[in-house]
Design a protein that fits this description.
Elements (H helix, E strand, L loop, with lengths): L2 H9 L2 H8 L5 H14 L3 H7 L5 H11 L22 H7 L2 E6 L2 E6 L5 H11 L2 E6 L2 H12 L2 H9 L10 E4 L4 H5 L5 H16 L2 E8 L4 E7 L2 E6 L6 H11 L11 E9 L3 E12 L2 E9 L15 H11 L4 E6 L6 H12 L6 E5 L10 E4 L8 H8 L6 E4 L5 H12 L3 E6 L4 H11 L3 H7 E13 L5 E2 L5 H7 L13 E2 L10 E12 L2 H8 L4 H10 L5 H10 L5 H7 L3
Parallel strand pairs: 2-3, 11-15, 11-16, 12-13, 12-14, 14-15
Antiparallel strand pairs: 1-2, 4-8, 5-6, 5-10, 6-7, 8-9, 9-10, 16-19, 17-18
């Protein structure tokens, strides 16, 4: 090699010399690419990859061999799990490096150019740690650098969208607190916009709940739509504390208290006349406060009883029971089965100017004008039982108890039902017959149960098939239909089950939900069984003899009508 060639070679960057030594580039190619990089004020690697002289994968392998450094596949690296606070994002962007991990006084750093001594010195000066280079493919490294250095605001802007103007559309979160007190607390614009976006999306997507869930390296937002939780966003972990604080400020909760659960309420104003209420619950977890927000839609109580899904005979039994002047009507089912909506639909029917209605709940979920609603406050001594005692001195006609949880509440509610009041309440039991034995097990006397309860309705919510995309399901074997509960005479070929498909108008083939009910009036025959301490099985047999359908049978009728799928009914009902 001549002296001139030696001088030219030494003028090239270390990366170029390594490629020449490996036989990937000729000296002339390297000099040309280096000259182009200087003229265009770009990096040598940029010109190298742009010229297609070598692929990113081959370049990484050559660098790994030439500098005896390990290779890494950045597809397997989660940007959220990379160490934060070690390197300035500007340093990462300038030198195209990403910190991968620290061990003792050594820092592992991903790079595509391990010959960059200036980058190594800068990182060592900034972190006071020795640098161990890890070779990565340059194209994958560029994407990781962007993801790693993206600010929380940039990520939130991507989720929310730059074109949506909340203020112009009259959308804002409102609070009963004075404006200066709210603004004095957490007022981070990106967080405010993100929260508004999530609340509005949840409402428009007909979600019932929003879950904001912090984990060690992830923060996710999920909506419960038609009973199913779906992940809708994964904002930066860095915003979890600001978002929780913002929600707590609006909900009038203590932002300094992060050790115990808290409950509150807030509102979202959508346009000049529409306001949506939300119930807020916070819970301390290992990696921050989880926040669950329940959407309280007052319009759900205005749907009318026909929209709930009662069969005509079930509807007639229910209306007859709630129109009696006294007695008790119980609604049972698990959490999230629509008991509150059913009760408020009944209250809406009974809500007349000449009727005094009082409710006690924990807390009141639906605001119904004309009804006196009370929230339980156990810290202040306002329990279900205490509120019921107060109601009896308030000249009530109808009383609604959010839930009968103990013997004291049950005794007072039954006493009210026996003394000329109509009492509506809920219990957590699997079906209507087991509700009676549950009250017996709580300690309520059999004669009080038999003389006070008019009717019990058990319910579940099943997802409705989307009418636009559902298709007949011809592949269900006859044996499977019989095992599900259909009788041989039901399989007469006059109907066919449907299955979900999925389209832009629905979620996985389902849109909305429909109630499945077991409506059991307490007849004289059932009263006799209660008085002699009969089991739930005996009561269920008598109810069947009187024509009361089980939850499964009620669900199968919805399958025959094409309202829901067999799979959905099997999932939400018991045999």
């Amino acid at each position: 090699m001549s002296d001139d060639d030696s001088v030219a070679t030494m003028a090239l960057p270390g990366l170029a010399r390594a490629l020449i030594g490996a036989g990937v580039l000729t000296q002339r190619q390297a000099e040309t690419l280096y000259a182009q990089a200087q003229a265009r004020q770009t990096g040598f690697i940029t010109e190298l990859i742009g010229s297609q002289s070598v692929s990113p994968r081959d370049l990484a392998h050559v660098m790994s061999v030439a500098f005896a450094a390990p290779l890494i596949d950045l597809d397997a690296v989660d940007p959220q799990r990379l160490p934060r606070g070690l390197l300035d994002p500007k340093t990462c962007q300038r030198y195209r490096v990403v910190p991968l991990g620290r061990r003792g006084n050594r820092l592992s750093v991903a790079t595509a150019d391990p010959s960059d001594l200036q980058a190594a010195e800068k990182i060592k000066f900034e972190t006071q740690l020795s640098v161990d280079w890890i070779i990565a493919e340059v194209d994958k490294l560029g994407k990781l650098v962007e993801a790693f250095t993206a600010s929380a605001q940039q990520v939130i802007d991507q989720i929310v969208g730059q074109t949506f103007d909340f203020a112009a559309d009259g959308i804002e979160i409102t609070s009963d607190e004075p404006a200066d007190e709210v603004s004095a607390e957490v007022e981070d614009a990106p967080v405010v916009r993100f929260l508004q976006k999530m609340l509005l999306d949840a409402y428009t997507m007909r979600a019932s709940d929003l879950h904001f869930e912090p984990y060690e390296h992830q923060y996710r937002v999920r909506f419960r739509i038609d009973g199913e939780l779906r992940e809708v966003a994964s904002p930066p972990v860095a915003i979890k504390d600001k978002l929780a604080s913002r929600i707590k400020v609006i909900s009038k909760l203590d932002i300094a208290e992060k050790r115990v659960p808290q409950d509150g309420r807030m509102k979202l104003k959508v346009g000049p006349d529409k306001v949506i209420d939300f119930r807020v619950s916070t819970l301390p977890t290992l990696f921050g406060e989880k926040v669950v927000i329940r959407i309280l839609d007052p319009s759900s109580a205005q749907m009318g009883i026909d929209a709930l899904g009662y069969e005509p005979d079930e509807k007639a039994k229910l209306l007859e029971a709630i129109n009696r002047p006294y007695g008790m009507v119980l609604v049972t089912g698990p959490t999230g089965s629509g008991k509150t909506v059913s009760l408020y639909t009944c209250l809406n029917l009974l809500n007349q100017p000449g009727v005094n209605i009082s409710t006690v709940e924990d807390p009141a979920e639906i605001n119904l004008p004309g009804v006196n609603q009370v929230n339980v406050n156990e810290k202040a001594g306002l329990t279900f039982a205490a509120a019921l005692r107060a109601f009896l001195r308030q000249d009530p006609d109808i009383i609604m108890v959010g839930e009968i949880r103990d013997l004291e509440t049950a005794d007072i509610a039954i006493k009210a039902a026996q003394t000329g009041h109509l009492v509506l309440s809920t219990l957590h039991t699997n079906d209507a017959p087991s509700t009676l034995t549950r009250l017996l097990n709580m300690g309520v006397a059999p004669f009080n149960i038999a003389s006070s309860i008019n009717l019990i309705t058990a319910q579940r919510l099943a997802r409705r098939l989307c009418p636009k995309c559902k298709v007949p399901h011809h592949d269900i074997p006859e044996r499977a239909l019989l095992d599900a509960g259909f009788r041989p005479e039901d399989l007469d070929g006059q109907w066919q089950p449907y299955r979900p498909v999925g389209c832009p108008a629905c979620h996985e083939g389902y849109k909305g939900r429909v109630g499945i009910y077991q409506v059991m009036p307490v007849t004289e025959a059932i009263q006799q069984l209660i008085l002699r301490g009969a089991s739930a099985l005996e009561i269920a047999a008598q109810a069947r003899a009187e024509g009361v359908r089980t939850l499964r049978e009620s669900g199968l009728r919805k399958v025959k009508m094409g309202i829901t799928s067999l799979e959905e009914v099997l999932a939400v009902t018991n045999n």
